[in-house]
Design a protein that fits this description.
With about 290 residues, the chain is α/β, with parallel strands linked by helices. It contains seven helices and 15 strands.
Amino acid sequence: MPRFLIPIGGNEKKSEESEIFKKMVELAGGSEARIVVVPTASEEPDEVAHKYQHLFSVFNPRSIHVVHIGERTDAGSIKLAKIIDETTLFMFGGGDQLRLSSLIGGTPLHHALAERYLSGSCVVAGTSAGAAVLPEMMIFQNNKFRNFRKGGTEMTKGLGLIHDTIFDTHFTQRSRISRLVNAISTNPALLGLGIGENTGLLIENETRAEVIGSGTVIVLDGSAIEINHIGYAKNGQSFGLTNVIYSLLTPGMVYDLKRRTVIDPGPIAPPKSIVKERKTDSKKLN
């Protein structure tokens, strides 16, 4: 079965008309969907839970559960394990991604969710902090060095549902390109994906990524980097970096995360160039 991961850039439109939520519920089984919402990242988890319960109820799923993890011990209950075993859509709300990784990472909940996802039995989505925590590595903090200087980004391990990628959210709205450049310069094996607000990536089998929603996704590919001085610069000092590949993806465009190339230019792409074939007279001249 195909696996679906849906990171969202935050501030998504919470409406039954939302392309992001319609696709999410559809992939999870529609009216048969069993949904779990985790508002743990938020400082106001009850309010977040209420909003998502109201939103998802519009789609008439089979069940909606809210699971708030206040302590790591909460992520190991037998009751929760049974719920996860039947879940077809699991969504992390926004807030502080470090709260998610520190309370859930390495717990029975984490292992059960990873197993469900890898089997193709459960769509996993997250918005803002809930998106940032999904990959193997995540950005969790900015420090004061924001203008392309060493030390501008702090990272730690995420939940590891996808490898060799790193998500940043609220990307264009909060001008976060500097910290994503920092992230990929520390290890160019990482593919940086900056996701705008009300925008998601529909990722199938950790490879095919389609932009959905209304905004843009910025891709920073460091695989062709030639000069990289971050290892020599002092903390807070600017560093040289060349040949970063920068791509701007709009809704409908599809990107191959493994080959690091666009595989579908999307619905508003210009038509292919037309080369008129010159007609020749096949009759022999006498």
